[in-house]
């Protein structure tokens, strides 16, 4: 069935294009997201949308580092730009290739595929129209690509500034949600999506009037919040008016044609993560808002994170959200102006107990040096006791904390080693005067450990340090 969409409160189904019969499914078990070579380990996609490529400033690049027995292996990697053989387009000034990334095994061949947004691409004569590229997973890693069509290019700009993947229409095939700005802030491209041939259909949606069309949909997170098999979407944007503060909603069922009538308002924030913290079968949502109240009334001194527990209809109606700041009893450190606690959030199982744990970046901590707090899941929900506080001066973590490093601007909890415990991977795009660095700490029964931690910058994976590439400003979604 087609995905339906609305502009405000009235349903509007946009014209479907490229209808074709579904492709036959491959026999292989679909790979988990970001397992590009099908070895059972999660790989890491690192976006550097401000990277210079062939002399073109801010053309953008993505480095992919593959997982291995000991975690991430920088010797095994793939560099992707729009000048890479097989990748559509050409690297041009301001394309910002790598602004958003997402992954899923779209064609169910046993290898996860990578979607990359380049919202600054001038497409079909439209300045900053944007584009999305799919790069295909194979046994030897990523190779070959196709463009994901912008079905409503006259209605949007900056197509690809946000990406998410999931079975949004319950037909067993994976669909792609794309955030843009303009009249239709959210577009869907319906699966199955194969390496060649026509795609089936798509739809576009505007959002209620409180969303600013000049910002559009700025971030997307997908996951099984309701436990029904439906993929829910957490949608981030900015409000209209002079302040342009954050607005966040849950689309709990995208199969409803007028789903914007059924939006569930969430605590406002700029980043989110989905995972089952208490193993009750309903995924929970963590929302980060790193702004001070002077910049966003929904923020807090030093920033805040709100955990909304999931239930059968989306957000739980029986459990109050958990609000976290660095002044919350048990949470390490103290809330200070500019800490940016909540600059990034990610849910994954770092200690291997089956409960999703929460990593929270505080990129402004200690005059912008940055830090990360990990809080642990349990049967009763997220625990505020026993948290782990990590920064560059933590024993074993390479380098040292310096102003403006922004350690914690992005965080990932994913099992790169295959030991059933997630590594904590951290982006610090301000390191080395804006070159940027990525750190990865192994998981253990007690949480992330500095023992065996690694760090690497853009040069290690083939990205130019001309200008300020901001390596690590984008990591696995």
From TrEMBL:
InterPro entries from the entry?
A: FG-GAP, Int_alpha_beta-p, Integrin_alpha_N
SUPFAM superfamilies associated with the record = Integrin alpha N-terminal domain (SSF69318)
Q: Which domain of life is it from?
A: Bacteria
**What is the originating organism of this protein?**
Streptomyces vulcanius
Alphabetized, the UniProt keywords read:
Glycoprotein, Hydrolase, Repeat, Signal
Q: Give the matching Pfam families.
A: FG-GAP (PF01839)
Per the UniProt entry, the signal peptide is 1-26
> What name does this protein carry?
FG-GAP-like repeat-containing protein
